[in-house]
# Entry
Amino acid sequence: MKKFLPLFLATAFIFAGTMVPSEADLVTVTGTLVDTRCYGMMPEANIGNTHKMMKGDKMVDAPKCATACAGMGIPAGIVEGGKAGNKTYVLITPTSQLKKHMAKQARVTGKIAYEGAIMPTKIEVKDDGKWKDVTPKAMM
Amino acid sequence: MILMSGQMYKVYLMPVLLGIVLLSACGDGANRSEVYEPVSYAVGDTVDVEGSLIDSQCFTMNKANSGMDHPHPVPTSQTGPACARYCAINGIPVAIALDSPNADVWMLLSNPQVLADYMGQHVKVRAIVRSRGVFIPERVEARLSDGSWTFVM
# Structure
């Protein structure tokens, strides 16, 4: 038994290293939920739910545009700090399930999957001063 | 400080050192996300790129999930065949893995349902660079099996 103890220790060391979850990969971003496409076109004007868009040669207001875009599947994102122009992360999640929460203050926890994209494990929005879990259900 | 005899070094220290070396080679476990370093484009520029359409969720969980059929679908209860199409129809954002040495992944800000039938296929995309790793696609064409291109969006 004593002969195998060093080998056992080395094996346990390797195994333990591979099983430790990488907490450093989880990030939490607080900001505003946006429709990434319209927001991407005009960040200052389209950070809320009412968006500016061109109709002919005029700029008009499109109420609840973010909700409509999310309902159509345009990827949602979170603007860090809720200020137009700040770092924005695309959320890798079924967007239509978030359509009722567009333009709300949000808190997203997840892993940075790619540059500019988060795979969320938890999405919360502020409703009546309280954080509410609105994480989309996984597809079955 | 306790000094070990030479024999004890061989018995105890060498396996531990071997473990350190092997652990370093293996990385820090399956839970680590890979952060891609995308190619560099100036924000606001219009670019023409080529690559493959991928499901951004399944691909990040396992790089083998690059085609229409996923050998490792997410969640695991999901069936593998046509998983990418299913994910796109259900609203998971679509991304493009560029034809670059790193196969850089860029998110596409468009309705994923429009791209659902072309998942895993080679495409060329004209897009505006929204930010690092994010395109606003203006035009997408998919390459067919005979080498011709078809307009997608």
Q: What stands out?
A: Chain A touches chain B through 43 residues (CB under 8 Å). The CA atoms of residues 31 and 82 of chain A lie 4 Å apart. Chain A has three helices and eight strands.
